[in-house]
Amino acid sequence: MKFISDGIQNWYLRLIDPAINFFIKIEIHPNHFTTVGFLIQLVAVYFIATGKFFVGGALIWLSGTCDIIDGKIARTRGIGTKFGALYDSTLDRYSEFIMFFGLSYYFVSGEYFLTSIITFVALGGSLMTSYIRARSEALGLYKKVGKMQRPERIVYIGGAAVLSGIPYLSQLISPYPLIIVLVIIAITSNITAFQRLVVMYKLTDNGRELLYTDNDRARK
Q1: Angle, to 10 degrees, between the axis of helix 176-203 and the axis of helix 113-138?
Q2: What pLDDT digit, counting tens, does each position of 13-34 carry?
């Protein structure tokens, strides 16, 4: 089961395609969108931390959209660089960290003690999922594994925040949509990290593949 269906993904990509084509036409550099997306996330954190969930959730979605746009521009224009990829990944990690920080701040200040712990576990699983992918790619081993990846986390947290912040409805349900989503992410992100570790174990001859060859050791 996918957490975001291909149909929804393709619909959203078609929706933002005109904007992407416009930005490609006027030759905006993808790193600019990476930076803008990060700055938007910083603003989103303020709204999330202060319980203004509707605006915070919408800004989280907007920040995630910037992340889609920068990659599409880089690929389409053929100007993706190694530093650009590193810059994008670095700001992605910081964006995710501060998003969970905003959530933790809200739950701690509201004395949702258990939920603040769940948020921390969700953050740990999310960061480890990304770390295992990055380390596997560096070792030339990466294979796409798992369901709860970064796009899914952004969509679900943003959606739960928007739902929790709808006027009048929020008085009845807030912040329970966010709590439910955080529980799901805490479980599935850590499962995804474990799945990736198991796959990498199998790809390395059940953990027996050596990191350095005899030639590598001889050069040292």
Answers
A1: 30
A2: 788 888 888 988 888 899 999 9
* Helix then strand then coil, % of the chain, to nearest 5: 80, 0, 20
173 compared with 10, residue with greater pLDDT: 173
pLDDT in tens, 139-158: 887 777 777 778 888 999 99
Which residues does 29 contact at the CB level (< 8 Å), separation at least 6? 73, 79
Q: Would you put residue 111 in left (φ > 0), alpha (ψ -120 to 50) or beta?
A: left
What whole-number distance in Å separates Cα of residue 29 and Cα of residue 144?
28
User: Are 151 and 4 in contact, with CB atoms under 8 Å apart?
Assistant: yes
Residue 147 near residue 1, CB atoms below 8 Å? yes
User: What is residue 50's three-state secondary structure?
Assistant: coil
What ranges in 26-112 are assigned the alpha helix state H? 30-49, 53-77, 82-109
Residues 6 or more apart whose CB falls under 8 angstroms from that of 129 comprise 146, 148, 149, 150, 189, 192, 193, 196
Domains and CATH numbers, the chain: 6-203 (1.20.120.1760)
Query: Quick check: 3 pLDDT over 70?
Result: no
